[in-house]
Amino acid sequence: MSWFQSAVVYQIYPRSFADSDGDGIGDLGGVIGRLDYLAELGVDVVWLSPFYPSPQDDNGYDISDYQDVDPVFGTLEVFDELLAGLHARGMKLVIDLVVNHTSDEHPWFRDPAKRDWYWWRKTPPNDWRSFFSGPAWELDPESGEYYLHLFSRKQPDLNWENPEVREAIYSMMRWWLDRGVDGFRMDVINLISKDLATGVYFNGPRIHEFLHEMHEAVFEGRSGLLAVGEMPNVSVEEARLYTDPARREVDMVFQFEHVALDQGPDSKWDIRALELPALKRSFGRWQAGLADVGWNSLYWDNHDQPRAVSRFGDDGEHRVAAAKMLATVLHLHRGTPYVYQGEELGMTNAPFNTIEDFRDIESLNHYAEAVEGGASPDDVLLALRKMGRDNARTPMQWTSARHAGFTSGEPWIPVNPNHAAINAEAAVADPDSVFHHYRRLIELRHSLPVIARGDFTMRLPDDERVYAFTRSLDGEELLVLGNFTGDPVVVEIEGWTGAEEALIGSPGLALGPWEGKAFRR
Ligand code: TEU
């Protein structure tokens, strides 16, 4: 057992978490002011999204200096105070490592001696497209050459074939670990090995070599750390290789299979109805695939995904029940659960009326390209409202006061008007709130080994209304149920009556609308 197998991680997107200086943008000082809130929730690790110097083209995932703090977020001294505050409360800090690409304003990009630290070609060698619309090869007027950017034009891809690049990254990582950081969430780390000839950049030919080399150069000889690889397009089979402790690559991966089930095969904006059996097949595949080797991350939400209760549950009449049910189902799986800021409040998608209400480069670029291509602006806006990343980036809702207590200034993105009812102050005061439900689930993970270490068996795989599974360890068993509909359901599970000890919810196998339950025997 590794320490992270009974841990829960809380993701903070600093821009939207808490603003301490009134400029309308969240900052590290704001996080420091909320450490007791995180300690009360009971999380073990904080994953902090980028706070480094950046032009903010992709809200900080375009880094121009890996070893400093952007003034908008604070200073290295404030960072050290935040780190000490987390450690004093028994929490670890994992920071975002964005090394597939830098900002085009990083000194490396304009350094003539570092031309081969990036992918420069006289003409585009392939027709790769950017994740943020348009071609992935950009003409640089100064040199007349093209450079690769799988994300925005201002995020040129680093050339990991160059050992100087790798050594510079490993040196930077060691610098942060020496400062006391407890690990890294590695942004799109399975894109760093690219083969321009074959057109491969997902899980490329040298990816395992690079990750093992990184592990040797950075983590060797240190303990209690966490390496989480964000890996779009990773399969279960590949994840077994990436997370097998004997291979010393990463501890767990963020995979995207379950958050693509309500999207078409070619575009996240091609929105499809989610079918519960498909969701259960996906989770079941990953639970079975990593049961004997490796480890799962468990998430519904992050800064790139719409709000879970709006997407997978009900954000209307049954919002509280649905938010609790989603938490129960996710947190009682085998793996490390991630709580995204506001998920523990049941925060919802926000009302975006016109394209001017959006901030995210991914959404703005898609809108421009789609409308240019003849799509109806209203149709594109419909997709942005449901699937856009800004849904997760509206400010954390602390109180019912102006701007939800997020800032004393003008927020960089409007606060969701429903903060009047959905906010941390009300939730912490209400023992029956989503917040305290998450706190109880986290306590259960800390106290019942069957949750962290037990095996997993999916039940009722084809049922279109109820998510059901069992866990077992050393004779102790759990039954977990989630009603994914707005109608009451009575469940039949062979060998279970509902008279067993109810860990979550009331006795009996009847489930109310969007209700989750858990039993132990
Ligand atoms: O996201 C990588 C990634 O795969 C996303 O492009 C995801 O597929 C998309 O956002 C879903 O809509 C990481 C970061 O989490 C994201 O915030 C960055 O924009 C991106 O990398 C580039 O650094």
Descriptors:
single chain; 521 residues; alpha/beta; Immunoglobulin-like; eight-stranded parallel sheet; five-stranded antiparallel sheet; 14 helices; binds 1-O-alpha-D-glucopyranosyl-D-fructose; GH13_cat_dom
Would you kindly provide a written description of the structure presented here, covering whatever features stand out?
The chain has 521 residues and is an alpha/beta fold. Among the domains are: 351-391, no CATH class; 454-520, Immunoglobulin-like (Sandwich), CATH 2.60.40. Helices cover 27% and strands 15% of the residues. The chain has an eight-stranded parallel beta sheet with strand order 9-8-7-3-2-1-11-10, covered by helices on one side. The chain has a five-stranded antiparallel beta sheet with strand order 12-13-14-18-16. A hairpin with a 2-residue loop joins strand 13 and strand 14. The mean pLDDT is 98. Bound molecules: 1-O-alpha-D-glucopyranosyl-D-fructose (TEU). Residues 58, 61, 98, 131, 151, 187-188, 232, 268, 303-304, 362, 389 line the site of 1-O-alpha-D-glucopyranosyl-D-fructose. 1-O-alpha-D-glucopyranosyl-D-fructose is lined by residues 58, 61, 98, 131, 151, 187-188, 232, 268, 303-304, 362, 389.
